[in-house]
Sequence to fold (326 residues):
Amino acid sequence: MTSGGGRPPSLLAAAAVVAGLVVAAGACGATAPARDATAPTEKATTPPSPAPSTSPAASLPPPTSAPTVPAPPAAPTTTTPPYAPPSPAVAPAPDGGPGTFGPTAGGALQGKVVAVDPGHNGGNFAAPSVINAPIFNGRSSEACDTTGTETDGGYTEATFNWLVAQGVAADLRAQGATVVLTRTSNTGVGPCVTQRAAIANTAHADAAVSIHADGGPAGGRGFAILEPVADGPNDAIIGASRTLGDDLRNSFLAGTGEPVSSYDGVDGIQARGDLGGTNLSTVPKVFIECANMRNAADAALVVSPAWQQQAAAAITAGLVAFLTGG
Ligand SMILES: [Zn+2]
Fold:
């Protein structure tokens, strides 16, 4: 469901130029699943060289203003960089780091704080020494961050995550929420998964979602919610995270038409104990793998601004259901 009236003008359709995104084949997220042998193997990817050349968006609205970028979407391409992503919905922090953005209107989420984590980062490709640094994720060692995956046509997961997160942030703010973003540009590096968890914890977020797309087997498609497994620091949020996961699964299924994953989890839900982002969370948190970027049918969706907007609206609807008890 979508409450609070109409969506803000299109955030996922306008003009900035990011030239020459160069990405490596890779996989989203972290390593082995904790409890389900059917879960996909995800691993860190060593970034290639040379580094991608990027240009920041030309103009940015102030953080508290409603977005005003109603330009029609350009036809998506899966093959030819540079792709032209939309202008950000939020002004980036000076270093592209985390930022907090207040409501743009009243609504059902007034007083709520939501942490939105766009997985990976566009600059990760150029900083292997930073993102490959080992961190302790609450259970074991994993990389600080990874590059994420990409479509066969070279459209990066970092970009997809960023654009969907922008839409979610705008939608939530338009319904009264304060949004904490773990990164405020798609040209930076990291932050480490430990920091991504800490940002939501420090904000005492009422809910947190980490937005990703998967790099699964080419023959598999669909979305999956990755839920935490109790490990000590996150013990208190397991039940609430499962409720959040159910709400997101239901809203994403209804709002996008995307099927639940054919290869990851059961009915779109997968418990994972190997993700620092949920192992270290003290607020209700799940990941969503919106689609399989390695599957041709899903790849055609993830590059589409219209589908990105649908995905954002569906994620927002799930968060609203969780936060309002609906
Ligand atoms: Zn990912």
